[in-house]
Amino acid sequence: MSAKTEIFIKDRADPYVTKGSDGWYYFTASVPAFDCIEIRRARTIEELPTAPTRIVWTKHRSGPMSRFIWAPEIHLVDGNWCIYFAAAADQLDPNGMLSHRTYCIQCDGDPMLDEWVEM
Hints:
Layout: E1 13-19, E2 25-30, E3 36-42, E4 53-58, E5 67-77, E6 80-88, E7 101-107, E8 117-118
Antiparallel strand pairs: 1-2, 2-3, 3-4, 5-6, 6-7, 7-8
């Protein structure tokens, strides 16, 4: 017997969902181009697949945060929204994928409207 696997949100890897203190569900995941971080929110988990998205951060043109933007996680920490994610250096880095590091962006207001900054 095999279990049926359903796709929660198409073309998204490493999904992460959290429920905010405001009652909304927040979702983020790796996007197919691995070049940005997007979020969405909805009143229910079932509404997340069709919820509007917002790109909150885009990779750098070169350097340590310029390739393979993977596995974002959104958390509410001391009243601020934080997204932790992995990013690698550009193609010129001899370590390639081994240059992946953890980074953080933060928003101290409404994550769907206000500015996100690199920490």
